[in-house]
Amino acid sequence: MLIPYFIVFSMLSGLYAYYVSPAAGYIGFPDQPNGAKLVASSLALATFVLLTPADGSARGFFLNLLLATYIVPSAVMYALADKPNYIAFSIGLACLIVYFVSAIPLRRIRIAKLSANAIMRIMVILTIFYILIMAYVAGFKNFNLNISRVYDFRDTAAENIPGIFAYLSTIFSKIIIPMGAVIGLMTRRYTVVIVMIISSILLYGFVSHRGVLLYPMVALGIYFVLTRSPQFSRVLIVLMIIFLIGFIDAAMYFMVGAGSIWGWFVDIIVKRGFMVPALLDFNHIEFFWDNPRYYWSASRLTMGMISSPYELPPANLIGKEFFQNPATAANTGFIGNGFAQAGLWGMVAYSICVGLVIAFLNTYGRYLGLPLVAAMLAVQMMTMFTGTDFLTMLLTHGMLASLFVLMVMEAPAARRTASHPKSSP
């Protein structure tokens, strides 16, 4: 896996130098390559690749996911943007903790079981009911399916929908719809897959968030790839193809200029999907290294018993400090948020928790099968790695409910037969 990962690292580095830095250097992507840090990044990347299991387990899949979507972009930032050593070491420590804690063997919790078909039917009913409620509450005045005009409608759509629907839409887009689609594909209920995809399109029209369209496709794509081969190398090949398309898109953007369709893919997928989360973690650690931490004072869990040192929540504070706009929500994953909450110890605590979640998924991956568990949880784990606070993801964004679904789901018939083969006469 060393060669595929270094190809991915090289391609992302090339995209950083060719597109990300020239197009977005002003927001924190400088063109400042450092030869010594490039060597250090390469050695660190090689170490993590060698530590990552290649055994087709759920642990191996999710550690590869962390490596490909977070560690590689962070290594690119460190080497090509000349980021500080202390931040890179902190990120490396957090990832090492995740690696080692995820190796802890956990026993499967045995509780009442529901068949995959029953869970799928529940998700379909909930999804259709929610889409009908959204149509009633939001109406079609601000309904938009034009991806290029997403920002023209997003704020207005948010103002016209009660706050509770922001949380519910996140749960449906990242959990219920992708899970229902994956189970439909697994059980060959292709009508369900179509219903879930149409639902994601309709939900996107109401909330104007591009991720709503992307999440079910990512989940279905992962399931399709892993049923053919459990090796993560297939995913890396897909990633290489994505980066190649990114190069073509960037080249056309520079040839044609702004105002055309060119540049959307490389900007959304490469810059925002891979490089911005890495940048925001560097920003979080840099700011909270010497400034007061939150100690979860902005969380509902503390019920106001801890006074906050700031008027803004962490994401908006970073938006104000680094992007001069307090309305910018610079959301990041477990590393940056852990550091914002309690410094190095907060980052360590969150890293331990993420490692335990992966250990849990590894246990259920053996029971339910890697393709199902990986496809159902990949989007949520990527969000935990790069997009939201660990406790927020676990509680508010519904990951705890996803883990509960795994606990109550019956193993597919093929796996039950394989685990308990009939004895011959």
UniProtKB/TrEMBL annotation:
Q: Which UniProt keywords apply?
A: Membrane, Transmembrane, Transmembrane helix
Natural source organism:
Borborobacter arsenicus
Q: Does the keyword ATP-binding apply?
A: no
Bilayer-crossing residues are 7-29, 35-54, 61-80, 86-106, 118-140, 160-183, 190-207, 213-229, 236-265, 342-361, 368-385, 391-409
Q: Which residues form a coiled coil?
A: none
Domain of life, per UniProt, equals Bacteria
- The name of this protein is Oligosaccharide repeat unit polymerase
